[in-house]
Specification:
alpha+beta; six-stranded antiparallel sheet; flat; five-stranded mixed sheet; 16 strands
């Protein structure tokens, strides 16, 4: 990394714009940054750090997100800005940063805060121009960190080399050194490894504890299942030997449970035999008791049969009379049927005669039939009168229809006359509507052309406004390009002048001993001119000339673009009717649009108006035709009405003769129909009553004969002996039940085993039952004990299998826990195998510190004339961490001592050597990024002249790697020794920078 140019504006103590040309200062290798206290030497370094990382080192950042970086000497309208031009990884970059700015508001009073801004540009050597890369704070920060390979903290320690920090580093303890080295070398990943291993150790330990807890819970369940046959050792989850103890106790419990199961099975077999014998004895006693009860019940039933023998004989006699009466039953049924039929016929005859006039009360069936025939003949003669009556009704309906038609035609005529009276006014209004719509259509065509012209003017005006802005931007761009061209031209002329001033040295470089000089011709060259620092050669002049030519070409191109923009602006202005404002043209377009819309709306009524006029014409024709048709129908109805009136008069005379005293022929016909029906029904009922009386007399004679043959004195006696179906079935059931009971009792009393049981002592079923219940209880208890033992064995087998599986499953996890615990203890420095009790992060930092000490020793030996050497120590100090010790070996005494024993001057050059060594190691750690510019801050005042010379020789040797070193110091002697200087001069209006080349 090489710095080229730094420009600060309103930054820190600098109220205006100050520029530092690091290329000129770096030409001498060493340069001095000096100035009075508080002038702003450190602010120059802060500006470099802020340009790269967007923040300044340490506490100088302050609060307010960068608002404190602004100079108090700056004008209110001047914005704070830092610009840094550098080369890193072969790329020429420019960084521009502007912190947040609290500026006065453009309108009104008060202030407002503008956000921070950042630009990153890269110089394109092919095109000779700067190319924008990004304006994102995050992207630029990531890009710079990736290119430099260092964080802001590392950069401040490696490039800005704060001597006070390294002096404290020499005297610090292991913890403080570890924090600083950890920030510089970013060993967080090793600390993360320690943390990750510790987390994995805790996680696996928790898993092992959970597994042991589950195993121990299973052991407690086995102990609960085994009862008192299992004892567990006093162990907790995670203790060694837990699995073996649990499995051993489980084996003992399972063996004991199997012995208990064998004893329970033997006890169950004995109880089963005893229960079977008690059951057989109980069955024998119950059977004897049953037979005894059966014999006693049979004797009781026999006694009840003897008591009911008389009732049985009476029932048998009643059944015999009922069977005889069954022979008379058909005659009884026939007589009852004939009697019922005769009563129904007599009642029907009485009802039919009651409906007839009194004149037919004594008439027989023949007389009634003759009267019915006469009424039917009279009814047949009324058919002609019925037809006349129906025709009269039709004539009345036709006359009513003609009257309705006449009223409808009258209404139609009145309506048509009223509509036709207003026809002329309607036609005139509709025609006026059509004419108005046609005029609106013509006006819309005219407004469309005017509206289009206004639109074109508005489009041209908007183009004119846009081209005005483009022309303004092009003019601004041309102005900037001209300024850049003038700067490039001035730069080229300055370089050309510098080259001409040093042309003697350039010509001297081509002189050869013995060859004539191209200027004076001499062959001896006793004192050829030498190139001074900052000499400009031909290549630099050519590069400046090329840059000037490119800038001039860009200026010409911008002038051409500005001319083209102005031509387009003139054309657009002409088309837009001059300088008429766009808002005014837009208002005109809106007005034309409104007028056109109104005209289009009026024209849209043309079709509907024409259609309304056409429909009104059709309606006029329809109304005229309807009026004519109504007049024709009215004339035709007059003759039709006269014909209907004549036919009605004739029909009414005919109907008056047919109706008689009734109101209509239909009433007369209904009267005759009712009379005929009544007479016919009465004649039929009289004949039916005569027939049923004859059949009843025959049925009485047959019933008397059947009762005599069956042995009954009268038909009434036979009817009394006859039973209905329900009584017959009940009597037969009683007889059958008595006979069945008698047979059953005789059968029971004849049984041999029943009679033998009756001769024995009464059976004691309760005692036998108690004995059987006791045997059953003992059997149930034995079975429960056997089942409990079997369940205990099965449960213990299941739990033991589960415990064995858990032990096998936990074995890999336990091995992993042991391995991780060993690794975690080793990396954390707590393991017995870690002899120095050194953490992993400390081990890595110790290796880095050893590299730093080796690199620092190379320069320390030169600064101390070979006396001092820095060595790294792994010894542990007190209770702190080991591996970060730093000692100095004194070659004069041959003894190794702590760095805290060095004097002030010795501490300075030791810390300087340490800082330079640390810079080399961090640079290599960052990927070998070349650091061509370094700054060393203060500490030189503590050195004597000889040591100062040796230190400056070491710093001057850095130029062997083409480095430049900037020394920040108050020491006045350094101003004499170092010719290239950057002086910071402070004043009331702010500090300024003065640069002097070597």
């Amino acid at each position: 990394m090489r710095l080229h140019r730094l420009t600060v504006t309103a930054f820190g103590p600098f109220g205006g714009t100050q520029t530092v040309d690091f290329d000129t200062l770096s030409a001498a290798g060493l340069f001095l940054l000096h100035g009075p206290t508080g002038a702003g030497k450190t602010s120059v370094l802060d500006a470099v750090c802020y340009a790269l990382y967007g923040s300044v080192p340490g506490a100088r950042q302050g609060g307010g997100q960068g608002l404190t970086l602004r100079s108090d000497h700056a004008a209110p309208a001047t914005r704070t800005e830092v610009s840094l031009e550098l080369t890193v990884a072969g790329r020429r970059l420019e960084l521009i940063r502007q912190p947040p700015w609290e500026r006065p508001k453009k309108r009104g009073t008060g202030t407002t805060v503008d956000k921070a801004q950042t630009w990153l540009r890269e110089y394109d050597t092919t095109a000779g121009t700067w190319k924008d890369l990004s304006r994102s704070h995050q992207e630029i920060g990531e890009e710079i960190t990736q290119l430099l390979g260092m964080s802001r903290e590392q950069f401040c320690q490696v490039v800005l080399l704060p001597q006070g920090d390294f002096a404290r580093f020499l005297r610090a303890d292991a913890e403080a050194r570890g924090k600083l080295l950890g920030r510089l070398f970013d060993t967080r990943r090793f600390a993360d490894v320690e943390k990750r291993l510790a987390e994995r150790r805790r996680a696996t330990e928790a898993q092992v504890r959970d597994g042991d807890a589950e195993l121990l819970a299973g052991a407690h369940r086995m102990q609960q299942a085994a009862g008192d046959a299992m004892e567990l050792p006093e162990l907790t989850p995670g203790e060694p030997g837990l699995a073996e103890a649990v499995l051993g106790a489980a084996a003992v419990a399972r063996s004991t449970a199997r012995e208990q199961l064998t004893v329970a099975e033997c006890t169950l077999a004995a109880a089963e035999s005893a229960q079977a014998a008690a059951g057989r004895a109980l069955d024998d006693v119950r059977e004897r008791a049953r037979l005894q009860r059966r014999f006693a019940e049979a004797r009781e039933r026999a006694e009840r049969l003897e008591e009911g023998a008389g009732a049985y004989r009476e029932a048998r006699a009643l059944m015999e009379r009922a069977r005889k009466a069954e022979a008379v039953a058909p005659a009884l049924d026939l007589r009852e049927s004939a009697d019922a039929e005769h009563r129904r016929a007599a009642a029907a005859e009485a009802r039919a005669r009651a409906l007839l006039p009194e004149s037919f009360a004594a008439a027989g069936a023949a007389g009634l039939a003759a009267a019915a025939r006469r009424a039917a003949e009279e009814l047949g003669g009324l058919d002609s009168a019925r037809r006349a009556e129906r025709r009269l009704a039709e004539l009345l309906d036709e006359r009513a229809r003609l009257e309705r038609q006449e009223r409808a035609d009258t209404d139609l005529l009145h309506e048509a006359e009223a509509w036709l009276d207003g026809w002329e006014g309607t036609r005139t209004a509709l025609q006026a509507r059509v004419d108005s719509a046609q005029q609106a259509a013509a006006l819309a065509e005219q407004l469309a052309a005017q509206r289009e012209a206004a639109r074109q003017r508005l489009t041209a005006a908007r183009l004119r406004d846009r081209l005005t802005e483009d022309t303004s931007r092009a003019a601004d761009r041309l102005r900037r390009t001209r300024e850049e061209t003038l700067r490039a031209q001035q730069h080229w002329l300055d370089l050309k002048e510098q080259r001409l001033a040093g042309i003697a040295a350039e010509l001297a470089a081509t002189l050869t001993e013995g060859e004539p000089c191209a200027v004076c011709g001499a062959t001896e060259h006793p004192a050829p001119a030498r190139k001074s620092a900052g000499h400009v050669d031909r290549a630099a002049e050519d590069d400046a000339l090329a840059a000037y030519q490119r800038a001039d070409e860009q200026r010409a191109e911008d002038e051409r673009r500005l001319g083209a923009a102005r031509e387009a602006l003139a054309a657009a202005t002409a088309q837009a009717a001059g300088d008429t404002p766009t808002d005014r043209l837009a208002q005109e377009v809106d007005e034309w649009e409104k007028q056109y819309a109104r005209a289009r709306q009026g024209a849209a009524e043309l079709h509907s108006a024409q259609e309304a006029l056409r429909q009104a014409g059709h309606e006029h024709e329809r109304r005229v035709a309807a009026r004519q048709d109504a007049a024709v129908r009215t004339a035709a109805r007059v003759g039709h009405r006269e014909r209907l009136e004549r036919e009605r008069t004739a029909l009414e005379e005919e109907l008056a003769q047919a109706r008689g005293d009734l109101d209509s022929v239909a009433d007369r016909a209904a009267q005759l129909e009712r009379r005929t029906a009544l007479l016919t029904d009465a004649a039929d009922a009289a004949r039916a009553a005569e027939d049923t009386a004859k059949r009843l007399k025959d049925a009485d004679a047959r019933l008397a004969d059947a009762a005599f043959r069956a042995g009954f004195d009268t038909p009434q006696a036979a009817a009394a002996a006859l039973l209905d179906n329900a009584s017959h079935r009940e009597l037969q059931r009683r007889l059958d039940a008595w006979q069945h009971e008698e047979a059953a009792v005789r059968a029971v009393l004849a049984e041999a085993d029943t009679a033998a049981a009756a001769g024995q002592l009464p059976a004691d079923v309760a005692s036998a039952q108690r004995a059987a219940d006791e045997a059953t209880r003992r059997l149930r208890d034995a079975a429960s004990a056997r089942d409990a033992a079997a369940r205990r064995c099965a449960e213990l087998d299941r739990l033991a299998a589960h415990a064995t599986a858990s032990v096998r499953r936990l074995a890999p996890l336990r091995e992993e826990y042991d391995r991780i615990a060993r690794m975690a203890g080793l990396t954390a420095g707590t393991s017995a195998g870690n002899e120095r009790r050194m953490r992993l992060e400390s081990y890595v930092l110790a290796a880095r510190l050893e590299q730093v000490a080796a690199a620092a020793t190379v320069r320390l030996r030169r600064m101390s004339s070979g006396r001092y050497t820095l060595v790294h120590s792994d010894d542990r100090t007190g209770r702190g961490r080991s591996g970060l010790g730093l000692h100095v070996v004194d070659a004069w005494t041959g003894r190794e001592r702590d760095t805290a024993t060095l004097s002030g001057g010795e501490t300075f050059f030791a810390s300087l050597a340490l800082a330079l060594g640390l810079a080399d190691v961090v640079t290599d750690e960052a990927g070998g990024v070349r650091l061509d510019t370094l700054f060393i801050d203060e500490g030189f005042g503590s050195l004597d002249d000889q040591t100062l010379d040796e230190v400056l020789d070491v710093l001057d040797s850095l130029r062997e790697r083409d480095r430049s070193v900037g020394i920040v110091s108050h020491v006045a002697d350094l101003r004499r020794r170092i010719h290239a200087q950057l002086e910071v001069v402070k004043g009331r209006s702010g500090s300024v920078l003065r640069q002097r080349a070597g």
